[in-house]
TrEMBL record:
Species annotation: Lysinibacillus pakistanensis
Source domain of life: Bacteria
UniProt cross-references to CDD domains, sorted A to Z: Beta4Glucosyltransferase (cd02511)
InterPro entries membership: Glyco_trans_2-like, Nucleotide-diphossugar_trans, TPR-like_helical_dom_sf
Protein known as: Glycosyltransferase
Pfam family, one: Glycos_transf_2
Span of domain Glycosyltransferase 2-like: 5-101
């Protein structure tokens, strides 16, 4: 069985730090907390869990802070979390089992990161991240913001999940760091450009975001997943500016980078559905359901491969008066969203149509 060092960077997390540490303290063998300048009770609370508390002078560089946190670890593997992350009881057990079963030659373990949950507790957005890494490999973090951990060697993909449950967030922090770097003449990588564009979009600076997304798409580097996501986000920006033609064109452009993703298929389906080209729309929503699941290190939104295309197919088959097909797809959508009022209202309507 291997041992685990937990490494976290925190600041003013008194409202949530207990929740995080409670969820992981029985799984890890060491807790290292790097405080970047708390002025609340964070450090007092952490002392109930560990004496390994270190101060780090904040310098607007997440990679530096995370690399410092990794330097404090002494156990076989390092697990990193943020203060607003939790590991549920089910996944605590999975991690404990992994401690007994993982082959010692594994250098890094990926876990699901459930970024957002809906009102029913279902996952709205998820991605894979390498969460558990062998200390002896000395893996490094890169990037002042939206930092990433560069791993290599023997990699293992687990089904363990970490859940993100934020109570607060400094929504201006990331863009503030990017704009300081830009002012200082820092040369943005393709990855920096992509994430800077995302921050601009989140701040509703759509024209600037469009410019940065195009710069990213024009670069020779960047993963296919990020380029597809950039096209989808570009489409959102153009929609906000009421430029439907450009929005549709960049969705089509996304098909150049790899096979269609479920969200792309649903966007294509929506395009044809709005034109009442029902058979074409049915084709694309059906494609969304047929795309194979895979390990994604970009953001994956389960709705686009589950209930959403089923609901849209139900509406499309209703247009064609194929009520049996419409009912079947609505029932499949209801399996994923049993309390959704749209699906329940549609169910009542379709049952009436089937009785006629």
């Amino acid at each position: 069985m291997f041992t685990i060092s937990l490494c976290m960077i925190v600041k003013n997390e008194e409202c949530i730090i207990e929740r995080c540490l409670d969820s992981v303290q029985r799984v890890v063998d060491e807790i290292n907390i790097i405080d970047t300048g708390s002025t609340d009770r964070t450090k007092d609370i952490v002392q109930n869990y560990t004496s390994r508390i270190y101060d780090f002078i904040w310098c607007d560089d997440f990679a530096r802070a995370r690399n410092f946190s990794f330097q404090q670890a002494t156990k076989d593997y390092i697990l990193w979390l943020d203060a607003d992350d939790v590991i549920t009881s089910e996944h605590q057990q999975k991690l404990l089992q992994l401690k007994h079963s993982l082959y010692p030659n594994v250098d890094a373990v990926s876990m699901d990161y459930d970024i957002a949950l809906d009102a029913d507790g279902s996952v709205e957005a998820r991605e894979k991240r390498y969460r558990l890494v062998k200390r002896q490999c000395h893996f490094q973090w890169y990037g002042a913001v939206h930092e990433y951990l560069e791993v290599s060697g023997q990699l293992y993909h687990s089904d363990i999940a970490v859940t993100h449950l934020p109570l607060k967030r400094d929504v201006h922090r990331n863009i503030r760091i990017y704009e300081r770097l830009k002012k200082e003449g820092y040369s943005f990588s393709a990855r920096d450009t992509f994430h800077y564009a995302n921050e601009l979009k989140n701040h509703q600076r759509f024209l600037e975001a469009i410019n940065q997304y195009h710069r990213f798409l024009d670069s020779v580097t960047g993963s296919a997943d990020d380029k597809i996501q950039a096209c989808i986000s570009l489409a959102d920006c153009y929609q906000e500016l009421h430029d439907v033609k450009q929005a549709n064109q960049v969705i089509v452009q996304s098909l150049l980078y790899d096979r269609p993703r479920p969200e792309t298929c649903c966007r294509m389906g929506q395009f044809f559905m709005e034109q009442f080209k029902n058979k074409e729309a049915i084709y694309w929503y059906s494609q969304a359901l047929q795309q194979p699941s895979e390990q994604l290190f970009s953001i994956h939104k389960p709705a686009f491969s589950t209930w959403l295309p089923h609901l849209q197919l139900s509406l499309l088959y209703n247009r064609l008066h194929l009520y049996e097909n419409a009912h079947q797809h609505n029932e499949l959508a209801r399996q994923f969203k049993p309390n959704d009022p749209r699906i329940l209202d549609n169910q009542k309507y379709l049952l009436k149509q089937l009785k006629k």
